Please model this.
Amino acid sequence: MIDGTALGGFPEYLAKQEAVLIGTVENEQLESDVAYYLHARGELALGEYDRSEERFIPKRTVESDSSIMSDTVQALLESGVEVTLSPIGEALNDAARLSGDDVLGKKQAHVYALREIYGFSRGEAATVLNISPSTVDSQLYSARDRKNSAESFVDTLDEIVSEMN
Model:
């Protein structure tokens, strides 16, 4: 389970609220709002973290056409506000890039970015994504398989091109 903090001491994961820290945002009053993805609501919300009660108080949500985590991070980044991403937010941003060319599906890209690029454990990735550890394993296996197939294709293409020259 994720029990660390990031970005000035905000908890990375709030178990009672099933909330994952995505980042901080400068609001209109030039104060920082904290951004958490709320699994129960399937949305990214901006608000305050109440340190005395150890809970996130949502003020508003980020408009997104999707409840997929990486899509909501992209919507936040495209909203025109100044955003500082947490390590989880960075991983989800990279997952959006990985799935953008359709080589990896979104779930595979989420798991691959968290596990292979950012070094989150199996359990941490499961917690962040609100999926079972066995689903993390199967998505990672599929992502690695797709990556290996793409590398094999590029190698074969390189051989063909070099044989022509």
Notes: The chain has one domain: 5-164.
